[in-house]
Amino acid sequence: MHIGERIGAYRKRKRIPQETLAGLVGRSRSWLSQVERGIRGVDRLSTINNLAAALQVKPADLVGHDWKYAPNGSPEVAAVAAIRAHLASYGHLLARPSESPPWPLPQLRAATVEVHRSYQAAKYGATARVLPDLLRAADGYDGFAGQSSREIHLARCMAYAAASKLLTKMGESELAWITADRASHAAMAADSDVARGLAAYQIACALHRAEQSDEAEYVAVGAAEHLLPLAASDEPDLVSLAGSNLLLASVIAAQRADRSLATERLTRAEQLSQLLAQDANRAWTAFGPTNVQIHRASVAAELGDPRAVIQEATMVDADRLPKGLHSRRVQVHLDLAWAQTQAHNDTEAVFHLHLVNRQAPEVTRYNTIARETLRELLRRARRTTPALNTLATSAGVLA
Q: 10 is in which domain, residue-wise?
């Protein structure tokens, strides 16, 4: 049985009308009818959770296999174990001597810049390999109270923020939360609003990946509200961080099927992007008019509206983004692949996934939606094509 058949079976067993169940999850009766008949897929984690709650079953009962592998399972990255080991060592707390002397501050700062660039270029494996040494070097300064203490705390915040980004992407939500929390402590020690905004965003991302959406929304909205009065000074870093937190909050609202609130937050973010008047990457946010437009397509996808995804995505000019932002550039193609899959335009869906894989192959492997879209295309294909097989193998969906 596919997921739609399971949903229909549980609904009928509990004698819940289609219209009632659809209303409980913020969808239309026609949408639910198409899901139950296998015409549409359900690839959003939030939608599966909402359906399971309404039917009073476990998400795994609807998915049909162990929940840890669907749909948010990610392949393991070997270097994550080294990051985990460092986080669990607590050498500074136990007064153990450092394994190596701290890096000079200029070297530490330069390394944090490079690791953020590597992550945004979607080089996740390379980023993971660098992070254990970077975090050890950053923690070598733990408790430092010298003349350069503020700059050191800022560098530690940026190092742990980069670690949280990668761990969130890898599905390691608990480790992502720990590293984001350490970034927040460094931000407070540095007494920097920019660092606070960056740490808050990473905490919200980690909570969101851990399926604690209410808490994530609270943090993201709170951070945006705190930064908005400060952003009135047109400080580009603060503007970018306020806007980024609003964009994350808009996605969370869309996952809750709150279209009006998601739209309102997108509008506020767009107004902030107009203050910058250009696409930038201040505070490693990639925030600007183009990123807002990309999020409009993503919000439409979260709302389950493939037509709106296609309409919004066609208005995006990804070439306007700063160089190196490969993960942001391919997001449009990920959303279009999902939309075309929902419309059963499988050839077009494979085409967009091919563009993702060509520009940022590690996104294909580690992005939840890319992997689940490929599974859906494989499941209903009468015969697989070399292009689909190659993509699925690259993503680790096929051995």
A: 1-71
